[in-house]
Input
Amino acid sequence: MAFADRLSFARKQKKIRQADLGKLVGTSGDIIGKYERGENIPSIDVATKIADALGVTLDYLVKDAAYEQIDKETLQRLKDIQKLSEDSKAHVFALLDTFIKQSKLQAIL
Output
């Protein structure tokens, strides 16, 4: 997935219009549209502002194949979690955090 695709996907997941994202990062919605179509590439400063506004990492926006190592079943579960309400996500993450901490402790012992 290219930068343009990841930008468009992240923006749509956050339900932010191009014009609103443009305002958040100090540019226009038309420029955001050009980024999403791959017609223009933002500077590193603008890309960082976009990542911050969308709540994603800059790595997510610019690196190719960042999730190649994730199997389809895990990726589907992550997508399903992403669709949950914020409250439900918080519960899922709390459960995961507890399980991961417990697994790490058992590995040490």
